[in-house]
Amino acid sequence: MSAAVSMVPDKAGRFGPFGGRYVPETLVAALDQLTQAYEQAIADPRFHAEFEFHLKSFVGRPNPLYFASRLTAQAGGARIFFKREDLNHTGAHKINNSIGQVLLARRMGKPRIIAETGAGQHGVATATACALFGLPCTVYMGEEDVRRQKLNVFKMQSMGTKVHPVTTGSRTLRDAINEAMRDWMATVESTHYVLGSVVGPHPFPRIVRDFQSVIGKETRAQCLDQLGRLPDVVIACVGGGSNAAGMFFPFVDDPSVRLIGVEAGGRANDPGQHAATLSFGKPGVLHGTMSYVLQDEDGQTADVHSVSAGLDYPGVGPEHSYWRDSGRVEYTACDDSSALESFYLCSRMEGILPALETAHAIKEAMRIAASRPHGDIVVVCLSGRGDKDCYEIARLSGQDLETASVH
Ligand SMILES: *Cc1c(COP(=O)(O)O)cnc(C)c1O
Hints:
- By secondary structure, the protein is an alpha/beta fold.
- It is built from 16 helices and 14 strands.
- It has a 6-stranded mixed beta sheet, sandwiched between helices. It has a 4-stranded parallel beta sheet with strand order 7-6-5-8, with helices on both faces.
- α4 crosses α5 (121-133), α5 packs parallel to α7 (150-158) and α10 (214-227) crosses α11.
- Residues 92, 94, 121, 197, 237-244, 310-311, 355, 357-358, 383-384 line the site of pyridoxal-5'-phosphate.
């Protein structure tokens, strides 16, 4: 592996054959403006200082690199550490990117923010950043997700965000992205679109990766400081791929560090029953970027399923496609029932309720740790806390939290 894995994307936003920009003409000017504003921002020390200030004072960074001692004993091999993104304000990694992009919107003088959301985590993070900076915000959310995630809808509305239910298509995340793009096309002069993962047209995959790279940078420094060396294995779950990209990127030029992404294996390997894009997808264009996409025989975007709403996406960030094909990162999948098992195991053994998305990565960490010597270091990105999933997990376990009595 050469030391050049980190030297992407190129000027056109290409990660090898992936990435780029497949959008209507009306968006090209806005994407060019965003690219230019971003390059100026990252060359400006004041922008970095401002971003770091808010990550520290508002988000609560740096969060700990935590030794999961009881899960380590249970696995019986390598030491398992958690990078605690669940301890960020709003409970997940999404806030890192939302704050960065809202700061960028301010620099561009755009007074209005829009965003898409699936389960609502990115919507809540963006609504939070907009409340912090006093900007009006509209969040597009599939009607089906509005119904399933009432609490997040209430949180966004409480912070002054307008939640716009999307009634087209499957009424989930991918339709919400389409609607947000449509809004943006009509309002680009006044509006910045805060995309929530490392997907979409250039420059979004790079911007989101960079803002989320605070995860991997802190982890790298904490490993060197607390453990005296780099980790042997780093593991993260992959939906669109932002927590994984942010965690992996600062390690991609360290050939000794094995990187593993975990996708949603769902109920089965049959089409429509999972969201394991890098295992079962083919290269194609979705939401303005070239990447692996789950497709049917006619090339139509396939239906997807996962127990965790945050992994339930038929595409994946173009940089992950590049890392997959170059062999730098390995990708695997964890099925719904293993993720649920892992949720309960982590809760009981560590006193930490992980998000269902994160539970996929913890499952793989247990498997890998068991196969490696005691001295080895396995780090998992604990992308978020599980509070948001308690109703759904209870329902899947045969309880209804609205009416439950204690046995
Ligand atoms: C949104 C979310 C994910 C999946 O999104 P990525 O862009 O793949 O990181 C994973 N974990 C949590 C807790 C999330 O909220």
